[in-house]
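can u do me a favor
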């Protein structure tokens, strides 16, 4: 997946925010936008769970 640095204005405190693929987290007021508001689709839960299973398996070995 290609990562794109995007810019926006925080809707809460109006600070300039930089994000990745349209996903933002404001360092000044802690606002974050919801995943579906980004420019790319939500990864499937299977994809997320596979990464979690791999990480947990590495810890327990």
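np, heres the sequence
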């Amino acid at each position: 997946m290609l990562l794109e640095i995007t810019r926006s204005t925080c809707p809460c405190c109006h600070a300039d925010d930089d994000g990745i693929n349209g996903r933002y987290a404001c360092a000044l007021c802690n606002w974050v936008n919801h995943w579906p508001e980004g420019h790319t689709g939500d990864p499937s839960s299977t994809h997320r769970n596979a990464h979690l299973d791999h990480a947990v398996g590495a810890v327990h070995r």
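Helices lie at 45-60. hope that helps!!
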